[in-house]
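Please check what follows.
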Amino acid sequence: MRTGSGVPLIGRQQELAALESALAAASEGQARAVLLAGDAGVGKTRLLTELCARANGFTVLTGRCLDVAGLPYLPFVEALGQLPVAGASGLDGAMEQLRLFEAVHTELAEKPGPVLLALEDLHWADAATRDLLLFLVSRLSRQRLLIVGTYRLDDLHRRHPLRPLLAELTRLSAVDRIELRPFDRADAMAFVSALSDNDLPETTLRGIAERSQGNAFFCEELTAVYGDGVPSGLSDVLLARVERLGPNARRVVRAASGAGGAVEHSVLQAVTEVDDLDDAVREAVQHNVLVTADHSYAFRHALLGEAVYGDLMPGERARLHARYARLATSPAALAYHSLQSHDLPTAMRASVQAANEAADLRAPAEALRHIEQALQLFDAVPDPGVTEYRLQLMASRMALAAGHAERAVAYARSAVALADDPEDGAKARHQLVLTLLPMEKAAEVAAAVGEAWELIKDRPPSVVQAQILALRAREWVWYGGPGLELEHLERLAERAAEIGTLVGAEDVAIDAQITLAMYAHWRREVEKTEHLLRDAASRAAALGTYAIELRALKNLAFVRYYQSSFGEMLAVVEEILERATAVGLTWAEIAVEARIALIEVPFMIGKRSTAEPFGDYSAAPRSAALRLQAAELYQLAVAGRFDEVDEAAGGILAGTHDAVAVERVRFAVAEAALWRGDPRVAVDESVRVIDWLVELPSAGVTDSRMAGATALAALADIAEQARRNRDEEAARNAVTEGERLYEKVLALGNYALKIHWQQQVRHPETILQEARMNAELSRLRGEKDVEVWRTAVTTADMFRYRQATARWRLAEALLDHGRREEAAVELQAAHADAVHMGATPLREAVEALARRARVALAGVEPETEFLTPREYAVLELVSTGLTNRQVGERLYISEKTASVHLSRVMAKLGASSRTEAVSVAYERGLLT
């Protein structure tokens, strides 16, 4: 681990800019003073050190105050003692004060160059130092002098002697005050990551960032020995502040540490039974141990509360929590204090009540925390008052709503195992299916739907029967057998709606309506689809069934996508996120999918550059964060940030079993491998995607063709390299492998409904991926067919990156046929798009081909003629495998002259052999 001074300055750009501005003014003869304030450990010294390092041309003098008596003028003595001729020798109490002050002023003001005087820890300054500082600052005018003084905000109680000085100084026009605040979450995580040399998992980074509350010193201490407790060294520092308090104030502070958060005055009075509570609290507040908030008190820093709590004896803690439990007014508080005081039956009941209350308040993450605590207590309590089945089922629902996808699956599976009657079994399987759908667990979904239906199909109409019918209507299109008819699915959905209405389950009826809307979409009934989805969203919102409302909006976005109305689709996606946040479903499955759409779709259509930053997902649950990171990877590959792709891919693959996230990772790794010249990796990753899709009952048509096109592109690269190396067997093997793969991909997509298949294959993205496959197959065979690449360009009209890539290959084919002017048009368009989208590897490939073709590109300095026309001619013939004699015969020159030209080519390319020269020429775009 590195110390804070050993890492780059993080998160202080604005404050550093203000200090550098003052430094620049001082160098021009406009003297300034800056008061740099902040809590202990926030990073004042680190920032001041950075300023001193940047003060080029300045005489830098530094002095520090100490918490000791009897040393007047200590920081000035230290600072002036650094001068070649120590002007501080006369700084003593016997010297008449005005003469002394004038001497110091003269010493600083009359230096031949600018001076930076840095005084640290002014909260410990003695009276003499404070007076001298006021004298110097009040006389700042045209000197080339900058004075910077630091002090701790949390040491300034109301009667602190520095306060009057600060009040006087801040009224002066030459004085600026900068308050250094704690890091925000992102900067704290970046700082901890730098401290640990990027060696900590993200969950640990997030935990340290949150516990430190952005304090740099706390970050360092927690990183050094990260865990749940407070490091002993840090604890000693924090407790020293408490030890300065009087007995009653210490008693109040110790009692407050057990509150578990802010504590009201009346509660603190009842817990402590201190007669003069107001005086005790006032002392703790004045010494910046506690802070006031409305009618309650809290620790100024959470770690201070942790340190005080950790200093309590076990018996003290138990008695303290028992007193708090008797005063608890909420189930959550009662559960916490009962657990800490070892009253497990009360903690169990209160945890369940708190979970229900949090669920009603649309706080699924909080509800999940309470229900998980109840599950931990279940076996330890003789009469829990609730079944484990109910707890597992609720835990799954809350985990799914909070974005903890894999935990939701685990709890649902447990609920299935615990169900002891048909209706409970059907409910548990219904929940299990909802958790599995985003993960493409096809076989388990099909089995669960079938089992649930068998359990309740012969029972009287009920809510769960309506739910399972609606689920069959919705999911059987994916998991049903061949020969399925759309009319049958529509009847299932209609029957689910009827039963839902009959038994008072209006939410089920609305859910079934959404399914019917999608079947209307497949029939191309545009107005009906729009009406049904908007109506369903409105009814669900009014009913308070927000997950169903979001499903309606998600399907509306899906419809817009298949209509290629991408702008309207993104507007609906924004609506989904707004509603999800408003109703407490910020990280629910549909909200995560919406965020993924905002990552992928704008890039796909050319409205987003890879240079634009991604969102901050540090607050997201781990499973949601991994899915979002997986969605970002492809753009990192396109940007040429290959090391980042490798690092992130490894972390995601190690951290999730989500098949969809894994698929995104494999696409990104394959794209990166293509651009960095590792085509076999690109083939292997693409084949893994295809093999996974084969296992699904209804393979994704678009995804399978995208994987196929990527694999064929990689195989074409392999074949081209083999041909350059005159390895015809390797080239033939690549062609054979590609042709087999092509046929395999085109056979994928055996949908249960023909109309569903048709809807998939007619989408523009599927069409463009098939065009890519055809064009790459042509390149694999060595055909360089202009028309197949022109088709690839045309079909990618709405997909900017794909079109730019196709234009590059089209230009290559055109050049091969001698059509240079047409190629120039394609290269210029491809280059403009690559630059716009931040597609660095594509841009470089286009520029290399343009150099070969001598095509001018906007914003690119034309390269001076690298090889002469004769050298180009020799190189081209050598690349076909001709000897020097054969080259000479073709060009009507002697063998010796051909050899001389080849030697010059090799020298210019830095190659040691003719084979290496050809290889380098291909890499640099000199040959195609």
Summary: The domain at 4-181 is CATH 3.40.50.300 (Rossmann fold). The beta strands are 32-38, 59-64, 115-120, 145-152, 175-179, 263-264, 290-293, 296-299. Residues 657 and 892 are 65 Å apart (CA to CA). Confidence is low (pLDDT under 50) at residues 86-90.
